[in-house]
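Hi support team,

I submitted a single chain yesterday and got back a structure, but I'm not sure I'm reading the token output correctly. Could someone confirm the output below corresponds to the sequence I sent? I've pasted both exactly as they appear in my results page.

Thanks,
R.
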Amino acid sequence: MSLPLGVSSGDPGGVGPEVAMRACVSTCAQLGAVIYGDAEVMRERASAWGIDAGRLRNVAVGEERALPQGTVGLCDVGPRWTPAALAHSPTAQGGRAQLAALDAAIDAARAGRVRALVTAPMSKEAVNLGGAAFTGHTEHLARAVGLHDDDVTMMFLGPRLRVALVTTHLAVADLPAAITRARVTRTVGHLAEVLLALRKPDESAPRLVVTGLNPHAGEGGLFGSEEASAIEPAMIGLAKCPPFASRGIVLEGPMPAETAFRMASAGEVGGVVAMMHDQATIASKLLDWTQAVNVTWGLPFVRTSVDHGVAYDAAASGSVDPRGMQSALELAQLLTSTG
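Hi R., thanks for writing in. Yes, this is the structure output for that exact sequence:
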């Protein structure tokens, strides 16, 4: 029997619970999925939203493997959601609830009770209001499995753009010191692994381009030194190592970010390595809105997520779009079905 996907429900006051249930019911017809959160409230909401209750099953922590194939399990964990679910704003109660759901899903993925982890959007503000220091899924996931922040890579994978980030949630003033040879090497290597995993049998080896940090990729040192001190040395070292030396992967750069993303939008390259958060996310959300998937690579399990936030306003108005979560579920299935 195939294992189900494990899904954290996200902020109870945002769109997470609804997109999780809608996407799981429509997408997980074969594998099934387990959603972690307040099972009672999720079931009540499903009925109000017209979701097929016949596809939902209550499942206890530790019993995920027993879930009938093709059904969606509701796994009750953590603090109650009421009244946080109705607040549609960051609350301490909601922060504690969404973190408990995430940690329960992580535990299931680490224990091999679910096939992969798929996460609904969380509010960093709410989690901090709830008393826990939290800067984002990527860093929390790394620490939860005993890794350092620099051991994993945040990526956004969509139909037009596949981009990996050298740095994630960091103040712009701190970026120059954070662009190191080791971080560039790790990010390029992780993106290469993903592209090889997703490559179809008839596709040629992927072509990767690496952006600079500074305007015009530093313009020969006129606008900054990070390209020469960190980015170029990392690329030279990688070119001598597998998979680049033996698998035919083409690596180019550092080049101006606007050039790299123009090439990606034209379909000329297989992936882009970006130096900073907004370099990647602005391009991703322009090119692949609702279709890009946030991936954390380097964990002992596959983790995917939506490329949008908690969207309190959409949750309050009922204008919820589950396509991002559907894409995240589909990619998690694909990544765990490849060798």
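A quick pointer for reading it: Residues 153-286 form a domain with the Isopropylmalate Dehydrogenase fold (CATH 3.40.718.10). Let us know if anything else looks off.

Best,
Support desk
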